[in-house]
Amino acid sequence: MATVSLRHINKKYDNGFEAIHDLNLEIPDGELVVLVGPSGCGKSTSLRMVAGLESISGGDLYIGDTRVNDLEPAERDIAMVFQNYALYPHMSVFDNMAYGLKNRGVPRDQIKQKVDRAAATLEISHLLPNKPKQLSGGQRQRVAMGRAIVRNPKVFLFDEPLSNLDAKLRVQMRIEIKRLQQEFGTTSIYVTHDQVEAMTLADRLVVMNNGRVEQMGPPLELYERPETQFVASFLGSPGMNFMSARVDANCLHLPGGHQLEMGQAIDLTKLQQQELVLGLRPEHLEACEMPDADFVLQVEMVEPLGADTLLYGRLPGNEDLMVAEQSGKIRYERGTKVPLRVDRSSIHLFDKDSQRRIV
Amino acid sequence: MHDTVVFKNKILPYFLLAPQLIITLVFFIWPAGQALYQSFLIEDAFGFSREFVWFENFVYLFQDPEYWNSMKVTFLFSAMVAVTAMGVALLLAAMADRVLKGAGTYKTLLIWPYAVAPVVAAVLWWLMFNPSIGILPYWMKFVGHYWNHYVNAGEAMTVVVIASAWKQISYNFIFFLAGMQAIPKSLIEAAAIDGASPFKRFWQIVFPLLSPTAFFLLVVNVVYAFFETFGVIHATTLGGPDNATRTLVYKVYEDGFVGLDLGSSAAQSVILMILVIALTVIQFRYVERKVQY
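YS: structure for the whole thing
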């Protein structure tokens, strides 16, 4: 059990490329932090620096009270689950799980006891004599998890551990990981590019972009109050709709001559004549009767998902594709005009230049 | 569904295979058949008379201590060539795998010796080891050793092993390096996190994963040492001193082309043929199935 703190961490490669700029992150004991972002944002590099697989160019990394910048991976008391599982193909499942303990000189009978217990937790006891080649993807994933928990390390590190699994198994393992992490109460850092995985697993979410932290906080807080346009666009599926808007009185003027009166919910008077970016989540665009409508969506494509229906289309005179999510199974034909109403309390406004949140 | 391509035309496949088949027949099957036939004959040195003697040549060979000595020399020589060539290649590959800057140049330089013909390689080593004019014996004199592989059997063997192994190192190196680079980096990283020292990581993770490559190379190296080192031996020691470096292949040459005992020479070739078939079978049986894991 330990806290992890990253203080002013920098990563600069020999070729001058700066992968991480001034990363600060305090992870309290037992918390699961998810680093999420597009590929190349520096999330994996950050994780590998914590693991000791990548050198740290600047700043301090603490696990517990120890500064571990210059310690070997083995001395940091961490365990890592890799994307490709990284199981030793020539060793049995038992030996795979026991390898770390053997190297640390744990007595043989204790190794057996620990491996058996971990295997039982993960329901892979019957697989212990098998070689990794004989296992399915999900089973390999469990063995990789087993190898991590058997040592009872201070920190778990997960590097996109579910990316190689099919969709159904991914959901199952996601729940499993959450359950295990809570059961063991081990501080964890989890890296993924999948925002659904990030949202569901995280105690705290860190959204990264271009080697910088865009925003961190509880997942729902980030979802409901994204500080930047990047975070707003990255979280949520289908993604948020954006369109440029100009303020006039307490009203937003959208391209194509559409207007959005704010009413009492939001006061725009301080932003007169400013150019902004309006962000609307698909689920906050609700089909309604014509008199209540803010605008009319010309439907181009319908995606029935069962529980929900997605409407893709454009507003007349506006080039931007727009998505609206309606709950339930509603039959819409291509080309129908659907009147939509905007939930005023959940609109997002960003500055056009800095892309930072205004409202 | 067939998992192989099926041609409708019955003749075309044979036509397309014909060039390869003709070459195989003319240059492999026919001479092999000739050797087999000749091994049952005793012929006088001038070719005036020949007598069909069944297995007499073979019986005579197996009773000849000279032949058994040659057999012993060959196995010893092959083992030493394989171990030296593979050991050095593995070491070089392990180092090349870590090189970051100038890796291309380094690899190219290591691969070059493979392009050198065996005889040229042998001449190179012959010059370096020459007791009168060689640079290595000259240096050895300073530490009080008088090198002469024309007299000393052990030294003669050392020369042929070094000259033969040197050429094979490049080949082994390429395979070992390719094998190492095929091992996912995350495996090594996982082992590092699991607390394995670099030494343990190599012997417990990398090496077992290279074992199929190593086994393949072992067979290839043994075949090389058996059959392709004639040039090296001919250019350096001529099988001497006192037949200390006369391998089976060299004895085939000596008995056949120098001694003109064609029957015995053919019989020896047939035995070598059986050995190479055995090695090939081993290779196909085990290498194709991948050893270890």
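YS: worth flagging: The longest strand of chain A covers residues 18-27.
IM: good catch. Also The mean pLDDT of chain A is 89.
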